[in-house]
Design a protein that fits this description.
Number of domains: 2
Structural class: alpha/beta
CATH class of the largest domain: Alpha Beta
Number of helices: 16
CATH topology of the largest domain: Rossmann fold
Strand order of the largest sheet: 4-5-2-1-7-8-9-10
Shape: globular
Largest sheet: 8 strands, mixed
Number of strands: 16
Strand content: 15-25%
CATH superfamily of the largest domain: Glycogen Phosphorylase B
């Protein structure tokens, strides 16, 4: 919860930095896994005691709660105000306009949030806006920063660098936000290169990779974990939103070349009917199981029960599931796309495979299982990637930005 105090300038290294965190990528009661990676990083930062925050996480306006309305209905379940893990979170509504909404989204976000942010700033006296995702969130955040005369730091996380800038109008607004922001963070070196390609000065971009909560994600009793899921043979695990770019269909197809293996798929999304049809068509119903969405706290036991995690994405920023699995002692198989080689950098971590080779998943799975790493070594690898370095990097960057606002660039 954000701390209150006077409007006097704090001593930057002794008084907690008062943040306004702004992002549509944030969990709420109706979608507890939505943007959980933003919440996780923020929670670790606040736990340091060196920063406080109030979160403004706008959600699309949607009036109907019935399950028949699919994923849209979950937004109707978001409260206007909630507390999550000690964080105060506001959920103003913004309109989503079909077809033309993409170009208007930053303006709609800004208009829906400005009055709330003004009221909060009047009492909270924020020092800095901590925004996540370049478009539309980061664009709107720079406008909020200008309206409140606050510095803005934006974290870019994936498709906001690799995909959305392919569209002319969003690209122009992203480039304007890059110019207006006081500093930029990326979760991988590949995304840093992408931001520089969009015109960001290299000196303005800091790479702060996502860490893993090694207290939550840790090895458990594998015998119990496997028995709970009815596992009796070599088992692969696939975790992620069921959308095409996650490549679940490729992992399912690979199972035809791995007749002795089982596959568990955790996640929900629009691709589920197509995956169910594919599983039935290939006769894999006895070996491939769709487990649906699972709460974050349930994942360690599922990671621990599997022998290896498979991630066949065609595009990622920084795939948190890789380190989560490793922290539970489970090695990974991941597509060799930008970002993943920064996570899988040692034999005990796992293996990479060619993203455009349909036979690669089965081949690399057999290679890994022929010489599975010791699970304690995999866990030790993950322990070198906890959140401490990321938290320290954020605090150093925020303090530098605040000092430059007072003293000018160094």
């Amino acid at each position: 919860m954000a701390s209150r105090g006077s409007s006097a300038k704090p001593a930057l290294n002794t008084v907690p930095i008062r943040l306004l965190t702004f992002s549509t990528l944030f969990p709420h009661a109706g979608a507890p896994n939505h943007g959980v990676f933003v919440e996780n990083r923020l929670s670790q930062l606040i736990a340091s005691g060196a920063a406080s925050t109030t979160v403004v996480a706008p959600v699309p306006y949607f009036p109907f709660r019935a399950p028949a309305f699919g994923s849209w209905a979950r937004h109707a379940h978001a409260p206007r105000l909630e507390s999550r893990h000690g964080l105060t979170v506001h959920h103003p509504r913004y309109p989503v306009i079909p077809r033309i909404g993409t170009s208007l989204a930053p303006s709609l976000l800004f208009r829906a949030s400005l009055s709330l942010v003004r009221r909060l700033h009047a009492t909270e006296k924020f020092d800095l806006i901590d925004a996540h995702y370049l478009y539309p969130d980061g664009v709107a955040a720079t406008w909020l920063g200008q309206a409140l005369n606050l510095p803005v730091v934006i974290t870019a996380r994936g498709s906001d660098v690799t995909q959305i800038p392919d569209y002319a109008r969003p690209r122009r607004m992203i480039q304007a936000a890059i110019a207006a922001a006081d500093a930029l963070i990326t979760v991988s070196a590949a995304l840093r290169d992408g931001l520089i390609g969009l015109g960001a000065p290299a000196s303005k971009v800091t790479v702060l990779r996502n860490g893993v909560d090694t207290d939550l994600f840790r090895p458990g009793n594998r015998t119990t974990q496997r028995a709970a899921l009815g596992l009796d043979g070599p088992t692969l695990l696939n975790v992620g939103h069921l959308i095409p770019r996650k490549g679940h269909h490729r992992v399912v197809a690979a199972m035809t070349d791995l007749p002795e293996y089982r596959l568990l798929i955790v996640g929900e999304g629009p691709e589920r009917p197509r995956l169910e049809a594919q599983i039935a068509r290939l006769g894999l119903g006895g070996r491939v199981r769709l487990l649906g969405a699972r709460a974050h706290a349930e994942l360690p036991a599922i990671y621990g029960a599997a022998d290896a995690l498979v991630l066949a994405s065609s595009r990622e920023g920084w795939a948190n599931v890789l380190l989560e699995a490793m922290a539970c002692g489970t090695p990974v198989l991941a597509s060799d796309i930008p970002g993943n080689p920064e996570v899988v950098r040692a034999p005990e971590a796992g293996r990479l495979f060619a993203p455009d080779d349909d036979l690669a998943i089965a081949n690399v799975a057999r290679e890994l299982f022929a010489n599975l790493p010791d699970r304690t070594a995999t866990r030790a690898y993950a322990e070198r990637h906890d959140w401490r370095e990321t938290t320290a990097g954020q605090l150093a960057l925020f303090r530098r930005v605040l000092a430059e606002r007072v003293n000018g660039p160094t």
